[in-house]
Amino acid sequence: MLRPCFRCFLFRHRLYQLREDMDIKPETFASLLFFMRKCLKFSFLEQFDNEPVIAGLGDEDKPFFCTMDSTGAKEPAKDFVVAGTASESLMVLVRQCSSLRWEPEELFEIVSQALLSSVDRDCLSGWGGHVYVVTPTEVKKGILKGRMD
Question: What residue ranges carry the coiled-coil annotation (predicted)?
């Protein structure tokens, strides 16, 4: 079921590139995803009770963060977004750390520890997570493995 969804997004992205002659911005992709979720509500996208997270750098390297709930409502944010079954416990930990300014390496470690500690408190969260730290020069990606009991 994921492959037709990916192909549909890829088709829309390429169509946008051909029409506008530029790459798609994160804000535009969030609007496209919102539109597609509403239009295809009763087709293959309905079967996914997912909460997509859209993050990227827009104009002048300004960060953009947005998530959608399972009904498709957009929830833009200024500095961070969380999604999933452990989002409430993760929100508390990340909100305390977001007021300070960290270097990318320190931020990666703090977010990783916050993610693992919130996942340990929720039996539905799975066995780890993905952490992305986006800077104007690079994207640092980490795959975390948690407890498997």
Answer: none
Tens of pLDDT, residue by residue over 56-82, are 888 888 888 888 887 778 888 887 787
**CA atoms of 50 and 61, how far apart (whole Å):** 28
Give the SS3 label for residue 129. Answer: strand
Range of the domain at 102: 84-149
Helix, strand and coil percent figures for the chain, each rounded to 5: 45, 20, 35
Same domain, 96 and 148: yes
pTM: 0.71
Is residue 118 within 8 A of residue 96, CB to CB? The reply is no
Structure tokens at 48: 């996914």
Q: How many CB atoms lie within 10 A of CB 126?
A: 13
Residues 15 and 77 in one domain: yes
Residue 78, number of CB atoms within 10 A of its CB: 9
